[in-house]
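Section handout, structural biology tutorial.
Before the tutorial, make sure you can parse a SMILES string by hand: atoms, branches in parentheses, ring closures as digits. In the record below the ligand is S-adenosylmethionine, and the chain has 215 residues. In the tutorial you will relate the predicted structure tokens back to the input. Do not try to memorize them.
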Amino acid sequence: MNQKEYWNQVSATKEFTTPFHITEFEKYVGKDARILDVGCGYGRTLQELHELEFRHLAGIDFSKGMIERGRAQFPCLDLRVQETEKIDFPDESMDAVLLFAVLTCIWEDSDQKALVREIERVLKPGGVLYVNDFLINQDERNKKRYTEYAPRYGTYGVFELPEGAVLRHHDEAWIQNLLSGFETLRYEHLSFTTMNGNRSNGFYFLGKKVSVRPC
Ligand SMILES: C[S@@+](CC[C@H](N)C(=O)[O-])C[C@H]1O[C@@H](n2cnc3c(N)ncnc32)[C@H](O)[C@@H]1O
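Predicted structure of the complex:
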């Protein structure tokens, strides 16, 4: 099963759980901001912003099932199916981008880098990126599956679910490398409950797009 098929298959049933630190977000992003949620799922985070009277909101997700569920559940939201890896918004058109529990679905370094580059492209200079995602765990269940799948995927922390999806828990050094083009506003460790009801290490990151990348 490919990744998109998996997310379509579970689109009616999964509830996503990574927390949104809205108070921290509001320190940097005002109600008039244009905000894009990349890999928005069924739109739960955008709905929270909508209820707080943020108005320029859009969400994209490569799973048609997720978008259809979101449109039915939250009809006020602008939710769109993302057809290609390119984000279908102009350069420097967004004040803020959300990326919640999406990196975990993209196991390859190069694909994660390409997505972050696209996000940088659509963000205005000084725009804010808010990421949350999963970090490597040290418990036996996780260590066993990381070790089992490391030879196949070439990265410790990548594993398959029994249903066929490939997920990644990240090494912190990789996350720092991936997000190094942003000036860090906030970085914190968290402990999440996953969509499958387990506990996992995680983080959240708020960063600002710097106008010119250092050489
Ligand atoms: C764990 S869910 C999180 C959804 C949402 N961000 C939230 O926190 O409620 C991951 C979502 O990312 C989407 N996704 C995974 N890989 C993607 C990609 N390469 N491009 C766009 N969406 C993707 C999936 O379809 C799924 O809806």
